Amino acid sequence: MADSCCGKTIEVRALEARQKRVLITVLAINAATFLMMVTAAILARSSSLLSGGLDNLGDALTYGLSLAVVGASLRAKARVAVFKGLLILAAAVAVGVQIAWRLAHPAVPLFEAMGVAALLNLAANATCLWLLSPYRHGDVNMASVWECSRNDVWEGVAVFAAAAGVWLFGSGWPDLVVAGALLLLFLRSALRVLASARRELATVRGQGGT
After folding, report:
1. Rg of the chain over all Cα atoms, to the nearest angstrom
2. 1 found inside a domain
3. Number of domains present in the structure of the chain
4. Is it the case that residue 210 has pLDDT exceeding 70?
5. Domain that holds residue 172
């Protein structure tokens, strides 16, 4: 019996070590992608690129928080998941503000810069999703991280579509349409993460856990 318990403890520790390594890797990828996206957004005058950059920043913060609670109690993980949901919600607000500013100051983005940045962003997001996929059905901490990463892939596809639309129509409206779609995506994801965290907290309270 003692050997069985010891074996389980070792397995849990090994799992936590793998989770930490993955979170450190995706954190670094998102931090680098954020800098690239924001620089490209300024050069290209693109709302969708800036939205993607803000999303990468939020994800880097999210991964840092997730790293901090690997191996922590269920209550702690659920509380961090609530904060991550609020971060996604803040990204949605930022996107809304950027869209409003662009509507007041219309401009045609540079589709060349948008396209290159969008491809690099999509490749980075797909890599993060692949790294996190083994943990998508794990605890609320890793599940919420995977949710953020899946959103990033859709965001990467959408930004590339915006670049193609700007090139095809010679107008800035595809950029704004995609930014609006990302706003809806962020809102949906925030609600999902917050609802999951709320259920987890309710379960912990019901069990009298910590």
Report:
1. 19
2. no
3. 1
4. no
5. 20-207
